[in-house]
Design the sequence.
């Protein structure tokens, strides 16, 4: 299957639901490993060998199909690995709703759940995969937001307080 076929398959099923993403990842796990072996880009082989967590963005002007496929796979895999269950976020929001009228209590709550909020800061409902630098072109993959309403609401509440001037002052005390 070509890169175009993989991307078309994803784009034809947008917005992507969690079940579809998990199915697509399982279906393509062998292709992912084959692409790492075939690509000319050494960083992916190093990442796989070293089990590295952080990968620098690709700077190649035109990316080969394997690199685009690998990055697409990794972005979807990271999305799945980062999100928790909806019940987890619902529980965090219930905690927030009980204390939302006390700014100090909310700030203490933010301190306690900062790890989970920080994990979500980079999560978006759109994944963008760079195809070429010149001319600049990216493919977009849309994720189904309505499937995780508590996650998106939790992220919104977290960012609202975490980025506030009041919270910044609170953390200086």
Sequence:
């Amino acid at each position: 299957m070509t890169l175009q076929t993989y991307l078309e398959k994803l784009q034809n099923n947008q917005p992507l639901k969690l079940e579809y993403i998990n199915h697509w990842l399982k279906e393509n796990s062998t292709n992912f490993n084959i692409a790492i072996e075939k690509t000319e880009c050494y960083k992916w082989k190093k990442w796989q060998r070293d089990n590295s967590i952080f990968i620098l963005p690709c700077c190649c002007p035109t990316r080969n199909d394997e690199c685009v496929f690998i990055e697409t796979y990794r972005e979807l895999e990271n999305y799945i690995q980062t999100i928790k269950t909806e019940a987890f976020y619902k529980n965090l929001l219930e905690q927030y709703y009980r204390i939302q009228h006390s700014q100090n209590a909310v700030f203490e709550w933010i301190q306690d759940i900062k790890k989970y909020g920080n994990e979500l800061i980079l999560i978006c409902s759109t994944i963008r995969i760079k195809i070429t630098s010149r001319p600049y072109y990216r493919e977009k993959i849309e994720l189904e937001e309505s499937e995780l309403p508590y996650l998106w609401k939790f992220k919104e509440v977290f960012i609202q307080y975490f980025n506030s001037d009041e919270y910044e002052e609170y953390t200086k005390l």
